[in-house]
Amino acid sequence: MSRPNTKGYFVRERLTEAREARDVTQADIGRPLNRSGSAVSNWERGEQTPEPTTLEQLASVLGVFSSYFGKDIPNYGGSAIFFRSMANATKRVRTREKARVRWLQHTSLELQEILEFPAVNFPAFVGPDDYRKLDYPDLEHIASSMRAHWRLGDGPLQNMVLVAENAGVVVGIDEVGSTRIDGQGAWCKADVRPYILLARDKYTAFRRQMDIAHELAHLVLHYGIDDEQLEKHFDTIEDQAKYLAGAFLLPDKSFPAEIFSVSLDGFLALKPRWKVAIGAMIMRARQLHILSESSAHSLWKYRATRGWNRREPLDLPTETPVEEPRLLRRAIEMIVDSGVRSKRDLLASDIGLGASDIEMMAVLPPGYFGGQAEIIPLEPKLKESESGNRGGQVVPFPRPN
User: Fold this and answer.
1) Which of 64, 66, 80, 84 is nearest to 21 (CA)?
2) Between the N and C ends of the chain, which has fewer C-beta atoms within 10 Å?
3) Residues of the chain with pLDDT under 50
């Protein structure tokens, strides 16, 4: 008599995805299961599948529901996921965060089976591969075009998260555990939608503004770039995103008109209005030739002397509240409050990830789903019924305001 198995149900790529998202090795997973790392490797390669009871244990070890391992991998596409650093020291963190971006996309796609998300509003500011031809005047023009298209005017932008979400971006939050990773953006082919996953580790309103602007710049300038192109042209790609983010937040005409003193205190006075760090304003003033190279260098030194290179005035969340994403949270609350799904069904059947993961990602209150105790391993289903509408009625999702 053959032993029960999960062949035909178990999606091996989900195991790799979960392992990388948890930043654990195959041996780390096998140890509590009394299995070798090579056994886990066999599961990931598709040479074997775990038994149903082992699958339940595997889900428990990785902090997900066993239903997660039965979900097909969407067509994420080959677009690169953008990071600020390609240093070897961050390689392991990048691997983890790439998997967490996939979790963000997976969660969004599952919610879109039920809700109709705001339409993506990204015109083709730059053609495929045209980024290599761009110079700084081109980036200034693109920054103006972005503001004009999204009807943002030329003044300060108080909430970049809302700007992104209104343009159709799905924004999530993650606790990275490293200050080397600020956030990452990527396009997903499955829903032709841009995604941004922000790190909570540098938790200031001004860092949040710049991180969103930086990832938006990548999404606008570098659509369709794959990992190979990113690595080959990384310095150019990062320099362009950094420049466009500054030009977008601090326009070349309106921002200089408000500079009344090219001093640290003068920039500090502008900080709460423009929602941009003093360091970024110094850099922008240098780009616009308001400051000479030597004057900018002196301000950088004076800024460090004051200790502002570690933390600037107004940076504490108690001084300046940090704007949080709203789209995912509102989507989940709408589904639950309308009775379309219970919290448990949404988590266990639709998404399949752990409660704390979704609560962090969607900025839901800790314990919203009832805590990890609610994660009860499910019996794997060897056959999936194709009949019926899994998502029920599609509910339109209102645009954030």
Assistant:
1) 64
2) N
3) 1, 372-394
